[in-house]
Amino acid sequence: MHLTIPKDYKAKLSVRETEAAIRYIRETFQDEFGQEMHLERLSAPMYVEQATGLNDNLNGVEHPVAFTMKELPGETLEIVHSLAKWKRFALKKYGFKLHEGLYTNMNAIRKDEDLDNLHSIYVDQWDWERVIAKEERTETTLKQTVRCIFKVIKHMEHEVWYKYPQAVYHLPDEIHFVTTQELEDRYPDLTPSEREDKICHELGAVFLMQIGGPLKSGQRHDGRAPDYDDWQLNGDILFWYEPLQRAFEVSSMGIRVDEAALQKQLKLAHAEERAQLPFHQMILQKQLPYSIGGGIGQSRLCMLLLGKAHIGEVQASVWPQEMLDECAAHDIQIL
């Protein structure tokens, strides 16, 4: 457990005012985001069958919450870590055409998460996915999409400021694009998280690109499952967050693997056995559409726009008593 207490922190909204703001942000953002990105809202599962290979493996060491059900003897069901793979399957299942897409509310449990101001075992986000052409699997497409999402987040900031001027956290007006290799070249003696803090403090808002593969040093900047994002065409939207003096991730996204990238990345991850799973076979046999997609943290966005010190101020979860006591002593109102 790691907890940062901002200096002289004072909650600017009561718990009930915060709850009203949470509802406003969530309802308004998803409508504006869906319209701007031309996405339809779909219902999504909370759990999937283990044998399908549809769950997100994250870094490969986290264990999903799993259970069995009476009517499916012998089948293991897993609470999703994310819907990264399910969404691409849904594009095919529901007949989405070129440049059409979907978004959905995703609720996940990541029981092995290390808890701090930004991390909870409960993950809630808007997961989204859109069909693109094979020739659109480019950095240009990726950057255009990032700028579109940034535009919606900035517009949401202005709307929150109109309703809650005393509480809104102001964001920079521009987002910058930096690769993980450029960061390593620039700050070779810093850890990956320290590099993120450094560049976000300097630039304000950054889309950090090319996450998952090994850098020149042989190390990876951060882990990414090998079977959804193309590690050369993905990234995270990061902001400098003054209350906590650190980089603040709001979204992870990317252009999805094609058949060649999947084979390459499974080999790099020593996970070639996954190629036999149904989802992976559909990619290798070109049965799924090429796509771009990602997730935008719902609680993260609320926390960012309202200038909160702890994600527990904008979502209901479970926390160690030690953390609860420390937060209560510093006016951090955990829900």
Radius of gyration using CA atoms only: 20 Å
The ordered H/E elements are HEEEEHEEHEHHEEEHHEHH
Helix content percent band: 25-40%
What is the overall silhouette? globular
- At the first level of CATH, the class is Alpha Beta
Mean pLDDT, all residues: 92
Domain Aminoacyl-transfer RNA synthetases class-II family profile: 23-320
GO molecular function, one term: transferase activity
Protein name: Aspartate--ammonia ligase
Family: Belongs to the class-II aminoacyl-tRNA synthetase family. AsnA subfamily.
List keywords for this structure.
about 325 residues; alpha+beta; BirA Bifunctional Protein, domain 2; 8-stranded mixed beta sheet; 3-stranded antiparallel beta sheet; about 35% helix; globular
Describe this structure in words.
The protein has about 325 residues and is an alpha+beta fold. The protein has one domain: 2-Layer Sandwich (BirA Bifunctional Protein, domain 2). About 35% of the residues lie in helices and about 20% in strands. The protein contains 9 helices and 11 strands. The chain has helices at about 15-35, 85-95, 140-165, 180-185, 190-205, 260-270, 280-285, 300-305, 320-330, and strands at about 40, 45-50, 65, 75-80, 100-110, 120-130, 175-180, 205-210, 230-240, 245-255, 290-295. Strands 1-5-6-11-10-9-8-7 form an 8-stranded mixed sheet, with helices on both faces. It has a 3-stranded antiparallel sheet with strand order 2-4-3, with no helix packed on it. Strand 9 (about 230-240) and strand 10 (about 245-255) form a beta hairpin. It starts with 14 loop residues before the first helix and ends in a 6-residue tail after the last helix.
